Amino acid sequence: MSLKKYEAFVRTVELGSLTKAAESLGSTQSRISHILSDLEAEYGFSLMHRSRGGIELTEAGKLLLPKMQAILQKERELAESIGEIRSADAGTVRIGVFTSVAVHWLPGMIRVFQAAHPKAKLEMRSGDYHDVEQWLREGSVDLGFVTLPGPAGMRTVALAEDPLVAILPKDHRLAGLSQIPIQELDRDPFISLLQSSAHDIHRALDAAGVHPNIKFTTKDDYAILAMVEQGLGISIVPRLLIRGRAQNLVVRPLAPRASRTIALAIPAGEALPVVDAFAQTAIDWVHTWETDAATESDTMP
Length: 301
Known about the structure:
The chain has 301 residues and is α/β, with parallel strands linked by helices. 45% of the residues lie in helices and 25% in strands. The strands form three sheets. Strands 3, 4, 5, 6, 7, 10, 11 and 12 form an eight-stranded mixed β-sheet that branches. Strand 8, helix 8 (199-207) and strand 9 form a beta-alpha-beta unit. The chain is rod-shaped and about 100 Å long. The protein starts with a helix and ends with a helix.
C-alpha cells in the first residue's frame, strides 16, 4: 500500500477539506479525490462522507485513521533516523583506549566530536595494549587506539610518534645526565608493564641488547610512576603518559632515541558513518594537538 494514499486520507481529515489537503500536498483537488476513491474501492467500504459542510468520517474511517497516522509517524521517524545515520548523528561509537590516550587525548576529542554530533553516543573501554587489541579482534569495540604495528587485518591510521623516556627517582645516580644511555638501565631494579603491554619498551631494550633487572611488574601505568617516585626502581615510559605528572621524577630522553607510534585501528568491514566521523575527529584533533605542542615548545625559554 502506497503511503501517499494514507497521507492523502489523513491530511484531508486533519484539514477538513479536499482543497486544503491538495494545497498542502502540492496536488490538485481532483487528484486527491481520485486517490481517496481508489482507497475506498480497494478496502471495499467508505472512509468518509464529503459534503458542502466538510468531511465526516464513517465508523470504518474512525477506526483506520489512528492506524494510518501511526504508520505515517513511523515513516517520518524512519526517514529521520536514516538522515541522522547519514549525517553521523545516530549510533554509538565503542572506543578501546589505553591509559595515556584516555587521560591526555580522549577528553579533548570527545568535546570536539560532541559539539559536531550531539546525538551520537560514545562508550569507552580502557585497558592496556593487549586488552584493546583483543577487543578489536572480538568486535566489542568499533575502533581502538593502538601502537604500530597494529593488529593484523585492520585499517590503521598513524596519529603521532611518542618518544620513550627514562624515569628515575630524583636522587638517582644518573639524574645528572642530560640523556640516559639505554645500556645503563640493566643494573638498577626495573619496573615494567606486563609483557603483553610492554612491546614498545622491550623493543627498545632488545635493540640495544639490554636485559633489565625486572623487579616489579604491573598492569597499571600510573603505578609505575608512583613506584619510581618512591625509589623502588627505574623505568621507561612513553612521554605522553607523564605529561603533567613528572614533578617528582627525573625524566630524560634515551640514547639511542626510541619511540612508539600511536595509531587508530578500525576493523575491516563497513562501519556506521558515526564511527568514521569519530575517527576523522581523532585524526584532526591530534594534528591540532601536535601543532600546539610544537608551538608551545618553541616559545618556552
